[in-house]
Amino acid sequence: MNRTFLLIGLIASLLFSSCNKEKVTLNSLLSEMTDREVLTRLPEKPYTLKQFSSYDRQSTTPGEEGWWANADFTQFIREEENSGRREFVLFDAEGPGAVVRWWMTFAGEGAADGTVRIYLDNKQEPVIEGDILKLLSGEMLAKEPLAASVSHETEYGQRGHNLYLPLPYASQCKITYECDAVEITDEGRRPSIYYNICYRTYEKGVEVESISPEVVQQNRELIDATGRFLLAGYSAPDQKELSGEKALAPGESLTLNFEGSDKAVSYLSAALESENLPQALRSTVLSISFDGEETVWIPVGEFFGTGYQVNPSNTWYTKVTENGNMESYWLMPFKENVEIKFTNYGEETVNVKAAADLESYKWSNTSLYFGAAWKEHYQINTAKDPDLDNHKWHFDVNYVDLKGHGLYVGDALTVFNTADAWWGEGDEKIFVDGEEFPSFIGTGTEDYYGYAWCRPEKFTHPFIAQPTGAGNFHPGMTVNMRYRTLDAIPFQSEISSNIELWHWAKTTINFAMSSFWYARPGVETNAEINVESVKNPVALDRSAIYPPVVDEDGMIEGEHLELALTPTGTAGMQGGDFGWSGDSQLWWRHGKTNDELLTRFILEEDGRYRISARLTQAPDYGIIQLYLDGRPLGQKFNGYFSEGVRAVEVDLGSRVINEGEHILTVKIVGADANAKPGNMAGIDWVKFE
Questions:
Q1: Once rounded to an integer, what is the mean pLDDT over residues 281-306?
Q2: Highest CATH level, class, for 242-543
Q3: What is the pLDDT of residues 56-88, one digit of tens each?
Q4: Within 13 Å and on the Cβ side, how many CA atoms surround 608?
Q5: Between β-strands 476-483 and 406-417, what pairing exists: parallel, antiparallel or unpaired?
Q6: What is the dihedral of CA 216, 460, 307, 542, to 10 degrees?
Q7: Disulfide check for 505: which of 165, 370, 456, 575 has CB 3.0–4.6 Å away?
Q8: Which CATH number among 2.60.120, 3.40.1350, 3.40.1000, 2.60.40 corresponds to the domain 18-33+73-225?
């Protein structure tokens, strides 16, 4: 028998033995977490979902000064003295309710060396008390994945800590943190303590059994079984009710149809083959119509959580294998018929092999259609105004706006970064049912997606994943996913899900956003179908966005030169306010003497050119010689400067140059006797007049 079904049987027997359907309990919430049908219906016990976080309290009014403030740490509701202890209040809410997702990270001496206390139902003594990390990602209450830190490849002190074990409370909940290291003055706050805590509030009259050590112990076997079930996930059925395979020429589709009542799509898989697989994963679109209403339109790679390259992951709702097979376990009900379509909007033939399975489902007046949408900000400038200083250039971008009645159940980002700088400082901002201030305002993109400190290491978890983080610190692609179960966000009339585009560099990137929901028939969305957007060439390297072409003014920025060979050390874009044009340069560091860095550029017109460059000097820069197509340009340049960093314009002579591709070489020929170790070199720009 399949291990998944063994676990389902164990969980079902445990629930049956102790479940009280009239009351919200730890038991009932764990059942809800692992029951995919729950999200397909309006909540049986209506609730609102909101969040407490350490967001910067200067963020008060959308679009006004302070809205993009970034000191999102060590911000608490208040400070209290309890039995002689100094406790900082992270969370304080009236019930009945339940904490359903709790994330934290820490930095600075003593930040994580504190005690957390959970006070319930206005009692003076805490119900739960102990080491903060043991609670969130240790085994005080639960094992992985209900209590987990990510990524396991990341140094422990730089991980995000996630508690998904629900903490129900009957009438009130307060969470405090006692930490002797905390200092809050007019000059600043330290150390750095970040948190996001999502919680449900049920309607008055809903009976809730509060969490306690005794309740946890009584449900220990169920807690452990739930964790194993989440990690095991679902398996592909042996027999699929619908299947098809077709070589799709540009514009062609493969369609899977089913007509019949009391059914739901329970499994969907796809595998693509193409000479240009990355482009096929973006330009092949999955669209699904339920009872004639199309609610899904999204590139195949984005739907399954792999971006536009094969990045393995295994979550509660999606799975991608090393060989490129992609699976989905979203439960998608319909009344009478469903049409699943794969359409090739690209320029090359794509072979699509797809399959779907269905299971019994009783449609009712509370049932919801599944929806998914996608939009990309293609080659978007990260600075609203590139001339603004002090990071006042940021702006909010939208996942989706929905008008209707339903549940928001997840979102994902596929980002191609072009700078040696973090792209995701931005906070989520989610407005529910027309509120003026968002129910959800967080502390950073990576925090929203469950990890921390912009770390690039991969991880996969039932509800959060980073299949690749290659673009977090350097040019490259990053994929982040967050799926919701107990933290699904109900909306009665509308929801607007947004996040700040807050990059540390003024650059141009690709920023693709996917969103997932369940809603009543007739929901309206602002995510318009944009065929042209899925046809855009995907970026596999920085030159796809910044081609190494000398512009019409005869200029090429150093950071736009395409790297062809870096024998030692590292080379790439460096940002900073050192007088460089565009606040960035090409930076080569820790190269060895006599090594050569080769870069490529394209000149579009023959001619005799006078060549100049602006090169960087600093205390740890070496002596370099530039070459054009193997011939020396100008004189040797001593990059040493004792008083800091500065950019110096140098004349490199004149040369007859043909139209086409050329190689500019940087050779380290030595170091000034006074220079510090580093052997660095920097090019702000090169000019051809």
A1: 98
A2: mainly beta
A3: 999 999 988 899 999 999 999 999 999 999 999
A4: 2
A5: antiparallel
A6: 130
A7: 575
A8: 2.60.120
